[in-house]
Amino acid sequence: MFARGKGIVLNEPSIVAINMRDGSVEAVGSEAKQMLGRTPGNIEAITPLRDGVIADFKRTEMMLGYFIKKAHNRTMWISPRMIIGVPSGITEVEKRAVRDSADKAGASEVHLVEEAMAAAIGAGMPISEPYGNMIVDIGGGTTDIAVISLAGIAYKSSVRVAGNEMDHAITEYIKKAYSLLIGERTAEMIKMHVGSAYRLDEPMTYEIKGRHLIEGVPKTITVSDEEIRGALSDTVDQIVKAVLDALAGTPPELSADIVDRGIVMTGGGSMLKNLDIRLREETGVPLAMAEEPLSSVVLGAGQMLNDFNLLRKISIPE
């Protein structure tokens, strides 16, 4: 969450821990993430957002309300103006769900903007110039790709394959190869430590602990970067294909600009080791990483708070 005049005031995962007996909220955000895979039977840690859109309307509303109060450091009710980033491929029903959740969480105004556009602004790309700028935003639930010129989107696509899918691929590989069950947090740690999209200069290994499926006891194994790269190959291939499709669908003049200016990558998923090298090899186009890949979308949305003319131009109409 970004507040005008203050910058980023809250940065937490979208997870809610619910007491299943009475429906009350036990924890939200970072505190709830610590509970993933560790809760007793009566408490469930859930992610109310899936693939970049709302999967659980009521829990999303509760989570937003909690975050708004926490960001303002007060318990009394407040009605902020809200700008929310959404994937390019969002449906009308999904848009309405986002607006309704924000309204019910106490927003006085709700503006939806496409995440790729917000990320481009947050990454400092010159979106208003008459040149083609391509951004690839690999988040948790979606990979959003856009070619932007004159503050408009000339080409856009969104595939529901990104960081979460990488975690799932790792979990499934460990289960199949080692008969070992691991949780979401462990899969994410494996991805961050030894996950890669292209051969590393120096081989790496990582020690993981989980429960053996057959023996039923805790067990420790060591995995290599090569193994995890293989586990991630299908997911990475889909992201690479989406970028190649975007380049193929871009108008010729803008395509020439992209060859000169390169592609900017942002989002947590773009930090996968050597993903930039893999994309450069496949596309033949130079790539650069945004300065703050994890924060580009929220920084871009924050800039719109200070420039309502820009917000009017690029917000999604109701």
How would you describe this protein?
The structure is a single chain. The chain is of the alpha+beta class and 318 residues long. It has 3 domains: 2-115, ATPase, nucleotide binding domain (Nucleotidyltransferase, domain 5, 2-Layer Sandwich), CATH 3.30.420.40; 127-161 and 233-290, Nucleotidyltransferase, domain 5; 163-231, Actin, Chain A, domain 4. 41% of the residues lie in helices and 24% in strands. The chain contains 11 helices and 17 strands. The strands form 6 sheets. A 5-stranded mixed sheet has the order 12-11-10-16-17. Strand 8, helix 3 (92-104) and strand 9 form a beta-alpha-beta unit. Helix 4 (115-122) packs across helix 10 and helix 5 runs antiparallel to helix 7. The longest helix has 25 residues, at 225-249. The two termini are 23 Å apart. The model has no long low-confidence stretch (mean pLDDT 91).
